[in-house]
Amino acid sequence: MKTLTLFLLLSTVGHAQIKTDKVAHFGIGYAIGATTTALTSKQKPIVSISAGFLAGTLVGVGKELYDAQGHGTPSFKDALWTSIGSGLGSVTIRISINQYE
User: Quick count: other Cβ atoms within 10 Å of Cβ 60?
Assistant: First the structure.
């Protein structure tokens, strides 16, 4: 929890607030990462965490590639926020799963 708090504080340096769009990307990434990790929880922890992180990252990058095709404005930061969310979602759900195994 201390790491998450520190991350959120550092990510807002120079900004009055995190834009709603970035929060949405983070949240979707978190949900995808956590869900994928939970679905692959019978695998070794590193495999399930990697699967969750990769799934969220691929969705984030795919969405930005879709935007680059004229469907929106592509943003590296949006993809980054989705990846960060998927990584955190993967790790936190794996920690939770390990507590009940």
Answer: 24
CB 52 within 8 A of CB 32: yes
CA distances to 6, 66, 95 from 57, rounded to whole Å, are: 22, 14, 20
What pLDDT, in 10s, does the model give residues 5-43? Answer: 555 555 555 455 568 889 999 999 999 999 999 999 999
Q: What is the pTM of this model?
A: 0.79
85, 56 Cβ separation under 8 angstroms: yes
CA distances from 39 to 2, 16, 17, 33, 55 (A): 27, 37, 34, 10, 12
